[in-house]
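Q: My hope is that you can spare some time for a protein that puzzles me. Underneath my words sits a plain record pairing an amino acid chain with its backbone structure tokens. Those tokens are not coordinates but codes from a learned vocabulary of shapes. Thank you; the sequence and its tokens follow:
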Amino acid sequence: MSREDLISLSEQTISQLPALHLLQNLGYNYLTPQEALQMRAGRLRNILLEEVLVGWLREHNRIHYKGREYPFSEGNIFSAIEALRVDIPEGLVRTNEKIYDLLTLGKSMQQSIVGDLRSFTLNYIDWLNPERRRNPVPVLLFTNLVRSVRKRRQVCDHCH
């Protein structure tokens, strides 16, 4: 973390530093707010680092079927990303539960393999191989969600 980043930190952000340091010690890579914003195409509403997520999902998710390995279809990769987009008509608690379940359990996807249509789990986090979790960690950004409950500002940063 650069000196300029430390100087501009607010009290709320400073309270997040211990978690950030823990994640860095676990092998995650720190992203400055500027890097995170650039990865969001300059739009704070883009709460997912999609480019990183697409690459990670492609690389770390495979279907094992009848002794062979197959990639998930591009449609399933993009459906998995779409499932993480925040939509809050059910309220923040239910939305958080939904995202938590997706991140911890993965998402079941139907895919045809050698003519057989089956469901396979696509995982957002590789729980069995922690060394694969070398992901970027942006400092949390305040994101004004268009459909937020009571139009409050929410802290939302979802990375895999």
About this structure: Residues 139-160 have pLDDT under 50 and may be disordered. The CA atoms of residues 37 and 43 lie 7 Å apart.
